[in-house]
Specification:
There is one protein chain. By secondary structure, this protein is of the alpha/beta class. The chain has 13 helices and 16 strands. The strands form 4 sheets. Strands 1, 5, 6, 9, 10, 13, 14, 15 and 16 form a 9-stranded mixed beta sheet that branches. It has a 3-stranded antiparallel beta sheet with strand order 2-3-4, covered by helices on one side. A two-stranded antiparallel sheet has the order 7-8. A hairpin with a 3-residue loop joins strand 11 and strand 12. The structure holds adenosine-5'-diphosphate and magnesium ion. Adenosine-5'-diphosphate binds next to helix 3. Belongs to the TRAFAC class myosin-kinesin ATPase superfamily. Kinesin family. It comes from Oreochromis aureus. This is Kinesin-like protein. It holds the Pfam family Kinesin.
């Protein structure tokens, strides 16, 4: 069953420059609604011909007002964590892949939300502090100019090396040679996070403001050992925490004089925009066709199957748009998070200042688009355990069939015996497979 997995969260902050600019606000937040007012049209006389809307309203899953600490509605880092961080952790502990990414213009609070400051911790360190971080591996990378760099690799030479992105037929896209660090407690996790942030900042100092031009992905891979039907099993969940470059880089006018770098940063953000709108379009199309499909596919699982594969971007059914994940490194690496097996949360950060009206409106529109995407997350269960469970269910089904045949044995014993013989044979074979499955590792697509 499909479930909506892209939630939109709105947080806002007012930069010093904007406060100095008179502090005129263009945005109001009321519960889950955001109203944005075009102050340039304030003097417009009623009835004047102007196609521009004076007041626009958007609805999101959560809206946070983090402008003025003295404001009674001020949303703190802790409040944001209690809503979003906790839902990331509960998704991962249920065995799902989870992704949380912050999108918005430079200075609007993406890094503040994702990483925070020493006296006001953001989502990533808060998530790392949670006690269940046992059996956990961490990696931290940066995409700058369409090149991937490991933020946790020792030695200057290694730090500067560009890594290749490849695609595994079952596990999907990955970064070749990216270092992965096993951590056994929260302190180790926080130390690695800080090391990676420091590497990012060092690069930023040498390279002007590179950190606001790069995308950073911190990945926590969490393995849980469970006992299912008396069989040891494992679920592996991946949490991707993403701090993106400023969204104004996606504006072609912005980087006219920074051609190569600009166009590459553009490439990731522009592609992200295209991917999000194509996924949203496909999801909307799917939901409107769902009732028709469910009638047409009664008794035929294949229609539903092809329908869901095109939703995740793999099938590209005739009515569905092609999703150009591979057009940029960012979208390629986040393929599953954006349109596949992941519970994904997007946090749109905006400045409420009137001087940022255009950027804020474009971020809100972007977020409204992303809200329409429907992902298909599933629990990443151990394949051999899943097979054994399915075989056991089949055995139970066949056993109950045998029993009912025996109970209503018909007058022709030879026919009934033959039928019983066949069923007994299938039950035996399946029981054999279950026993074998316990001793061998079965490699099946997840
Ligand atoms: P971005 O990553 O979107 O470019 P930053 O997160 O670096 O922006 O924020 C710019 C500055 O504003 C930083 O100094 C940050 O600490 C501060 N800031 C951003 N959002 C808030 C907020 N909600 N409360 C307090 N300070 C904030
Ligand atoms: Mg930033």
């Amino acid at each position: 069953m499909a479930s909506r997995q892209v939630d939109i969260r709105f947080s806002s902050s007012l930069t010093r420059r904007e406060s100095a600019d008179g502090g005129r606000l263009a945005v109001q937040v009321e519960d889950k609604f955001v109203k944005i007012r075009n102050v340039k049209l304030d003097g417009r006389t009623e009835g004047a011909v102007d196609s521009r809307e004076k007041l626009l309203e958007f609805c999101f899953d959560y809206c946070y007002w983090s402008v003025d600490r003295a404001d009674p509605h001020y949303a703190s880092q802790e409040e944001v964590f209690q809503d979003l961080g906790v839902s990331v952790l509960s998704g991962a502990s249920e065995g799902y892949n989870v992704c949380l990414f912050a999108y918005g213009q430079t200075g609007s609070g993406k890094t503040y939300t994702m990483m925070g400051t020493p006296d006001s911790m953001g989502l990533t360190p808060r998530i790392c502090q949670v006690r269940w971080l046992i059996n956990t591996q961490l990696s931290f990378l940066e995409i700058y100019n369409e090149r991937v760099r490991d933020l946790l690799k020792g030695g200057e030479q290694k730090k500067r090396a560009t890594l290749r992105v490849r695609e595994h037929p079952e596990k999907g896209p990955y970064v070749q040679d990216l270092s992965s660090h096993v951590v056994s407690d929260c302190k180790q996790a926080i130390d690695l996070l800080e090391e990676g942030i420091a590497n990012r900042i060092t690069a930023a100092t040498h390279n002007h403001d590179a950190s606001s031009r790069s995308h950073a992905i911190f990945t926590i891979q969490y393995t849980q050992a469970i006992l299912e039907n008396n069989l040891p099993s494992e679920t592996v969940s991946k949490i991707n925490l993403v701090d993106l470059a400023g969204s104004e880089r996606a504006d072609p006018h912005y980087c006219r004089d920074r051609l190569t770098e600009g166009s590459n940063i553009n490439k990731s953000l522009v592609t992200l925009g295209i991917v999000i709108s194509a996924l949203a379009q496909n999801s909307q199309m799917s939901s409107s066709c769902q009732s028709i499909n469910s009638v047409a596919s009664e008794g035929d699982g294949s229609t539903v199957g092809s329908h869901s594969s095109s939703l995740s971007g793999g099938g590209g059914g005739r009515r569905h748009c092609f999703i150009p994940y591979r057009d940029s490194v960012l979208t390629w690496l986040l393929k599953d998070s954006l349109g596949g097996n992941s519970k994904t949360i997007m946090i749109a950060t905006v400045s409420p200042s009137a001087s940022s009206y255009n950027e804020t409106l474009s971020t809100l529109r972007y977020a409204a688009h992303a809200r329409n995407i429907v992902n298909k997350p599933r629990v990443n269960e151990d394949a051999s355990v899943r097979l054994i469970r399915e075989l056991r269910e089949e055995i139970d089904r066949l056993k109950s069939m045998l029993l009912s045949f025996e109970m209503q044995r018909n007058p022709s014993p030879s026919l009934s015996d033959e039928r019983d013989g066949n069923l007994s044979e299938i039950v035996l074979q399946n029981e054999l497979k279950v026993t074998q499955g316990r001793h061998t590792c079965l490699h099946l697509p997840v």
